[in-house]
What we know:
Layout (H helix, E strand, L loop, with lengths): L1 H44 L3 H12 L1 H15 L2 H24 L5 H29 L4 H33 L3 H18 L18 H14 L1 H22 L1 H8 L4 H29 L1 H19 L5 H29 L5 H13 L1 H15 L2 H19 L5 H5 L1 H6 L1
Helix pairs in contact: 1-2, 1-5, 1-6, 1-7, 2-5, 3-5, 3-8, 3-14, 4-5, 4-7, 5-14, 6-7, 6-11, 6-13, 8-9, 8-14, 9-14, 9-15, 9-16, 10-11, 11-12, 11-13, 12-13, 12-16, 15-16
Amino acid sequence: MPRKESDDAKVRLGSRFHRLFGATLVSAIGTGMHAAVLPLLALQISSSPMALSLVVVAAEIPWVLVSLHAGVVVDRLDRRRVMVWADLGRFAVLVALAVLILTAQVNLVWLVLAAFLLGIGQVFFDVAAQSAIPDFVSRDPRNLATANGRIAAAESNGEDFVGPPLGAALFGVWNFLPFAGNALSFAASGLVILSIRTDGTPKATSDAPRKSVRSEIVEGIRWLFGNRILRALATVSCLGNVVATAQFAMLALLAKEVLELPDFGFGLLLMATAVGATVGGLAAAAARKRFGSGTVLLTGKTGVGAAVLVLGLVDNAWVAAAMMMVTGALMTAEKVVVSTLRQQIVPPELLGKVLSSSRLVVMTGGPVGALLGGVLASVFTVQVSYAAGGVFLILVALVFSPVLNNRALVSAPDEAAE
Length: 418
């Protein structure tokens, strides 16, 4: 009987979702490829650390600059077409970059511009893909959780597990190859999305005059901060991102100075995180159903805190790899639960705006975490930054437990509907 229930759940996801899943996986592989090879190409052009920093910043800054506007676009237009245009735009950027590499005309300015444009494409694609899940899947919590878990696993596998090593391997053969392959991945993703039927896809329509972009952005922000559950989820995710960014920013230093690993050992730690993230994404729906959303969130945050704390206390590479796997699994499970709750609470016509507002809040924790991690590692030791981050996350879980427990979250969708 349980098997039949699982099979029915798979049927309810439908072919449109599975095409979205496939396109997301292919697109994520492409994102992982250029995330790995853009810094390598930057180092070929210039050995300056500042050159590497500029490329990384250019790829990340679009989340701060355009995420709110992306939310408005995603809610105004067909989300499927937004994803297609995002993929085609990134395809064009990579074709141009590949031509510049072939003709030996590529320089740091072109590379930074390419990283920035690719980052913009990722913002629009990610916001549209996340907002489109309820369009292709019923808003039943079990189906949403299963769909979000599979999308999270696809993103993790593509961006962290398959894309980076594939891109780096192709780059070692010929620096042109990963960019050409990356362009083809985005073209393939766009074609798969274009093949998704739109018949029956809910899209809000209204005869009322269209609001200004600024008014719609404000509407999304008000919705986010006006709902106590959404506000708490965004705040907790932001605080978690502070620790997560500090953790990954200092990971190379931890691997070399404390764990005494060679260069490839650092890559293995990242792979351990990706493996954990895949498990967490696929198991999140079952965990939410069995234990409740609040338990998954609070246990996940506490567990990540404990794992990061252990990283600050041990110098064994195997233990460190296990802790990275734990953090990957628990952070991804949390992400799935947060996405599912947001999709249940927010009306479909507002989902893009609220999602982009939430993403902006969460992303502000990244620079803060990177700065704090560097300061603590410089003043004390790299392990102090991990120990402090672990204790901080455990305290965050304790402080927010009254708002994010099972009882509080069960009634959240009904309260929003009222």
